[in-house]
Amino acid sequence: MRYQITGKQIDVGEALQTHVTNELGSMLEKYSQRPTDANVIFSKAGHEYVCEVIVHLSSGLNAAAKGHASEIYAAFESCTEKMDKQLRRYKRRLKDHHKDRTGPVEHFGASSYILAGELDSAETEPDSLQPMIVAEMETKIPSLSVGEAVMQMELAGAPVLVFRNEKKESVNVVYRRDDGNIGWIDP
Predict the structure, then answer these.
(1) Whole-model pTM?
(2) Which of 67, 87, 90, 144 sits CB 3.0–4.6 Å from 78 for a disulfide?
(3) pLDDT tens readout for residues 109-141
(4) Was domain 2-97 assigned CATH 3.30.160.100?
(5) What pairing do the DSSP bridges indicate for beta strands 107-115 and 62-69?
(6) What is the per-residue DSSP string for the chain?
């Protein structure tokens, strides 16, 4: 298990690194998901400390949690409580479905673009209707079942997840609706 513990404009001392490694290791050992690595990022927002943890599991799924508190250790504890709850639910779902993924999740390459938003007011007309591309990146699209895609979206705390449906070999989308339910787009 590899740990990457960093701070954004914060000095992360040896005592905090040791505490994070011990606590996170014991919490992850409980669920025996065989995590491959964990990224822990500490930052400060106003008067609060923020802790973000992203754990990459050997199944190809990622679990992410974020905690806020007035002290840095309390922010980490808040974050690990959320991570503990997510992993407990994930393990329960795997047991409920009686399905263990035997191999890692396949990923397919795709292009990801960031488009510029409206910079000017409605007074000025755009030169063309083509959006301006700010950034172009390579992204990976996992090959999952619909249930696994919903789990991955919830574990990552993302509002939407694009995935390749294992059964139909087509690109699908799951997303969180405004009413709290999950939507699934299957073209």
Answers:
(1) 0.58
(2) 67
(3) 676 666 666 655 455 665 666 777 777 778 788
(4) yes
(5) unpaired
(6) -EEEEEESSS---HHHHHHHHHHHHHHHHHHT--EEEEEEEEEEETTEEEEEEEEEETTS-EEEEEEEESSHHHHHHHHHHHHHHHHHHHHHHHHHHT---SSPPPEEEEEEEEE----S-TTSPPS-SSPPEEEEEEEEEEEE-HHHHHHHHHHHT-SEEEEEETTT-SEEEEEE-TTSPEEEE--
